[in-house]
């Protein structure tokens, strides 16, 4: 029984390792030069990013279901129930992984300075956007995230040398 609970916990933990959050930067994106483009938010729309199906949840569910089912009845019954348990466990594990990796997100429609429009979907994060907000699009390795534009203050003039 402890092995079953451990396998389920491991599957759920591994399934939760992916995110579309702009606040989470992958190791591959760290210390890379990014392209930054100024834009203005036009509209926002809540969306849901569908969960992943990497196979980890299904595999863990299959193992757990097979082990749990094989402990039922005599040798012949345990084999049949073990197979049924493995199939049911795989389906449940797959569904668990998919549901546990779903994310509430937002689709942000922006307009660039040149008039072009772009749409970016990203997980809800620490920043809240509103139409008209100045933002920047940060592109690193083909991935884009939207963040509020920093407030730029005019540089203080340097003292003149006489």
Can you walk through the features of this model?
The protein is elongated. α1 packs antiparallel against α2 and α1 (2-15) packs parallel to α3. A hairpin with a 2-residue loop joins β4 and β5. The chain has a five-stranded antiparallel sheet, with no helix packed on it. It has 162 residues and is of the alpha+beta class. The protein has one domain. It has helices at residues 2-15, 56-70, 75-100, and strands at residues 35-49, 103-112, 117-123, 134-140, 143-148.
Give the number of DSSP strands. 5
Largest sheet: 5 strands, antiparallel
Average pLDDT across residues?
76
Unreliable stretches, pLDDT < 50, 5 or more residues?
4-17
Could you give the distance between the termini? 84 Å
User: Helix segment count?
Assistant: 3
- Radius of gyration of CA atoms, rounded to a whole number: 24 Å
Q: What's the overall geometry?
A: elongated
What is the H/E string? HEHHEEEE
Whole-number tally of structural domains: 1
Percent in helix: 25-40%
Structural class: alpha+beta
Compile the SSE list and pairings.
Blueprint: H1 2-15, E1 35-49, H2 56-70, H3 75-100, E2 103-112, E3 117-123, E4 134-140, E5 143-148
Antiparallel strand pairs: 1-2, 1-4, 2-3, 4-5
Feature tags:
single chain, 162 residues, alpha+beta, 5-stranded antiparallel β-sheet, 3 helices, 34% helix, elongated
Can you describe this structure in just a few lines?
The protein is α+β, with helices and mostly antiparallel strands.
């Amino acid at each position: 029984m402890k092995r079953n609970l451990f396998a389920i916990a491991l599957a759920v933990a591994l399934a939760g390792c992916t995110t579309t959050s702009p606040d989470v930067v992958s190791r591959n994106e760290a210390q890379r030069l990014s392209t930054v483009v100024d834009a203005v938010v036009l509209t926002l729309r809540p969306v849901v990013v569908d969960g992943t199906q990497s196979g980890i949840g299904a595999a863990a569910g299959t193992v757990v279901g097979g082990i749990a089912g094989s402990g039922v009845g005599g040798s012949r019954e345990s084999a049949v129930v073990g197979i049924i348990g493995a199939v049911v466990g795989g389906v449940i594990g797959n569904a668990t992984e998919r549901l546990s990796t779903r994310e509430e997100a937002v689709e942000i429609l922006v307009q660039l300075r040149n008039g072009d429009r772009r749409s970016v979907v990203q997980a809800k994060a620490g920043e809240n956007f509103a139409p008209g907000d100045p933002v920047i699009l940060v592109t690193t390795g083909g991935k884009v995230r939207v963040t509020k534009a920093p407030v730029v203050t005019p540089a203080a003039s340097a003292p003149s040398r006489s």
